[in-house]
Amino acid sequence: MKIMVIGSGGREHTIVWKLKQSLKVEQIFCAPGNGGIAQLATCVDIKVEDINGLLNFAQKEKIDLTVVGPETPLVAGIVDAFEKKGFKIFGPSKSAAQLEGSKIFAKMFMAEEDIPTAIFATFDQIKDAKIYLKKNKFPVVLKADGLAAGKGVVICQNEQEAFAALDQIMGEKIFKDAGSKVVIEEFLQGEEVSVLAICDGDHFVMLESSQDHKRAFDQDQGPNTGGMGAYSPAPVLKEGSNEKEAYAIIEQTIKGMKKSGRPFKGVLYAGLMITAKGVKVLEYNVRFGDPETQVILPRLKNDFVDLMLASCEGHLDQIKLEWDPRSAVCVVMAAKGYPGDYAKGLKISGLDQAALVNDAMVFHAGTVKKGDDILTAGGRVLGVTALGDGIKKAIDSAYEAVQMIQWDGCFYRRDIGYRALERLKNGM
Ligand code: AMP
Ligand code: GLY
Predict the structure, then answer these.
(1) Is the CATH number of domain 2-91 3.30.450.20?
(2) CA of 291 to the centre of ligand 2 (A)
């Protein structure tokens, strides 16, 4: 089979790496790819938003299966465009992708389906939002309705912060039309966990759990990022009834989407908060998580092509997933300044040595290959993943590999997996 993967991050490098292990795969293209993906696939210079360009390429190359990484083309309707021309593509339709494309749609859907989530109100007028905030208690969470590259959520400690964020989002339109409506919701306290399921519209299979680390610095300090590291499995899901509640949330979501005429195909990612009052949905994503994918796929034993095809063709009920029992840890190595401005084009050294560490893999995110060199080309540059018997061994191997890699200004968190380690120390 000829496969095309769309995207250029660590998530897509991991997807390409996993697809490459399937005997069914003859050739993989990746649009646009990165310096690491270029070692496994043929990178083609087409942007992820260029749906016509991607479709033309699929027609020219007779691509048998396309796997979409990021949300932007999904929300823009890439799956509908490909399927209309008879191409197999893994992901939700434009209407089902609204679960991520519109936070208001997602909240209304959850209210309708009785899916537990934070109490919320929605606004399309800044003055109404301010009147509401004056009566509300803090902290509150303010969310731009549409896609904002992971920057559209602001946790506001007081009225002043909330008004300033509203002025930027609805007044100055820093996220353009994505901020013409907002959700204001209750701040939930608890531990976060990422739960992903592969779906075919009717059936679903749950992937193993994982936990991301969203803040830039150790001990969850500093600004929110796309994710600075992850581990799988996340033991918090095994406590009490958490796993059962998470499963029910996925099941209710799939049933509800089918009922509302938007059957969900592709990967459904529920960002969950484990609160004292039960498991609640913080957000839905309609794609694989990044860096969650870097710790989930290395533990999956099944042929990834079979899984993608079962989702596209509607026979996921015939798939049983098998998992490596070992833990996986991914440490993201980022460029100084990320998630703000950062330099690009810096030479990375030590990649070959890092890959020699037992059960370690280096997934590229923001890199480019120039001659024999690999240069930085993004904020999150690499994701170093290691497997180990238990979380401690996985953490140790991941950091052993990380320490071999260098470039000017590289930084990473040194506490990835700390929650799982604490549980281990406490004998939980
Ligand atoms: P979202 O894009 O909705 O997942 O939000 C990004 C991050 O903001 C989440 O991963 C949480 O860390 C935080 N967050 C979102 N909603 C809430 C909430 N209601 N209460 C507390 N934190 C939240
Ligand atoms: N790691 C968070 C996300 O993929 O949205």
Answers:
(1) no
(2) 7
Q: Tell which one of 207, 214, 292 to mutate to probe ligand 2, the residue whose CB is within 8 A of the most ligand atoms.
A: 292
Give pLDDT tens digits for 29-78.
999 999 999 999 999 999 999 999 999 999 999 999 999 999 999 999 99
CATH fold group of domain 119-186: Dna Ligase; domain 1 (3.30.1490)
| Prediction pTM value | 0.97
Which ligand 2 atom is nearest residue 291's CA? 1
Q: 191-425, which class in CATH?
A: alpha beta
Cα of 248 vs centre of ligand 2, distance in Å, is: 21
Give the 3-state DSSP-derived string for the chain, with helices as H, strands as E and coil as C: CEEEEEECCHHHHHHHHHHHCCCCCCEEEEEECCCCHHHCCEECCCCCCCHHHHHHHHHHHCCCEEEECCHHHHHCCHHHHHHHCCCCEECCCCCCCHHHHCHHHHHHHHHHHCCCECCEEEECCHHHHHHHHHHCCCCEEEEECCCCCCCCEEEECCHHHHHHHHHHHHHCCCCHHHHCCEEEEECCCCEEEEEEEEEECCCEEECCCEEECCEEEHHHEEEECCCCEEEECCHHHHCCCHHHHHHHHHHHHHHHHHHCCCCCEEEEEEEEEEECCEEEEEEEECCCCCCHHHHHHHHECCCHHHHHHHHHHCCHHHCCCCECCCEEEEEEEEECCCCCCCCCCCECECHHHHHCCCCEEEEECCEEEECCEEEECCCEEEEEEEEECCHHHHHHHHHHHHCCCECCCEECCCCCCHHHHHHHHCCC
Mutate to test the pocket of ligand 1, among 188, 275, 282 (most ligand atoms within 8 A of CB): 282
